[in-house]
Design goal:
Blueprint lengths: L16 H13 L14 H9 L1 H4 L3 H14 L6 H32 L5 H26 L3 H25 L13 H12 L5 H18 L9 H8 L3 H11 L4 H18 L8 H4 L1
Helix pairs in contact: 1-5, 5-6, 6-7, 8-11, 9-11
Length: 285
């Protein structure tokens, strides 16, 4: 009542939450991601939603206070019930798009990384789910005409989310910087196409496999904790797609399992070595 010109101003930007979280996930999981012009269309509904609030914002302070009093008494925020339903569906759809990116990032790590820190994946999952649940709840309550129940749940979720952010800052601040093993979006797509149309002959596969096994034995790249498929391919002067194909088809396993087989064998060797008898299994690992 003291600052009536602020009434509903926060609601103007509600639709921006969906695209913002989606692009945060993309920027976290995809290397060199930029907000290119072909992605600007995501902001069109946001701009239209802001313009929709202009008539209310230009009303007198008395009219705005009267609206606030009606909301407190009746618990109805939007003049259109189906408008609120549409807004919730719009936001929920972005959270599903974001979750799809999170799972895609996890799959990419499983295929291309030799060591996976699940804290990054779990953080992105937490980021999406904590904000999706109250929106889904608000969607149900709006369908039932019980908007006043959905709003407190939404606010409680944001409070819990902020608490989660502070906890994450203390426990693992690195998750707010570049996530490891980010997807190279264009190269990943090219790699899939090359793999489908690969002209790698069986003789070449055998040659690459022997070269790979020899390199693993002599250079021991598996001793690097965060070794990735592109990094190993670069060191061996082999394309990512060829190296991946050789490991998958000739070694019959993923890159993750292939590298860790060598680590396990090295660990077995050290466990039998008297010089390491004073080491625990955890220390060997």
């Amino acid at each position: 009542e003291q600052f009536p010109y602020l009434i509903r101003t926060g609601l103007m930007f509600n639709l921006a939450i969906g695209p913002s979280i989606y692009f945060f996930i993309k920027a976290s999981t995809q290397k060199n991601f930029t907000l290119r012009p072909n992605l600007y269309w995501h902001w069109i509904p946001v701009v239209l939603h802001i313009l929709w609030y202009v008539p209310f914002l230009t009303q007198s302070n008395a009219a705005k206070i009267a609206w606030l009093e009606r909301f407190i008494q009746e618990g109805v925020m939007h003049s259109s019930h189906w408008g609120l339903v549409a807004i919730n569906l719009y936001l929920i759809s972005y959270y599903f798009f974001s979750l799809r990116l999170v799972f895609k990032y996890q799959q990419f790590q499983n295929k291309n990384a030799s060591s996976i820190d699940n804290a990054y994946y779990h953080w992105l999952l937490f980021f999406c789910i904590v904000l999706t649940i109250p929106l889904a709840t608000e969607f149900v309550t709006s369908m039932l005409g019980m908007e006043a129940i959905g709003m407190p749940l939404l606010l409680a979720s944001y409070t819990f989310f902020i608490f989660g952010i502070y906890t994450a800052i203390v426990l693992k601040p690195a998750i707010f910087h570049a996530l490891p093993n980010q997807i190279e979006e264009t190269k990943a797509e090219e790699k899939v196409e090359k793999y489908k149309n690969s002209n790698l002959q069986e003789a070449q596969k055998e040659q690459y496999l022997q070269q790979l096994q020899s390199y693993m034995t002599q250079e021991k790249p598996y001793q690097k904790p965060d070794l990735t498929l592109p990094e190993l391919a670069h060191k061996m002067n082999i394309s990512n797609s060829y190296l991946s194909q050789v490991i998958n088809e000739k070694a019959s396993c993923t890159f993750f399992d292939f590298i860790n087989q060598y680590r396990v064998e090295k660990a077995k060797e050290l466990l039998h070595d008297p010089a390491y008898a004073h080491y625990t299994i955890v220390a060997i690992a």
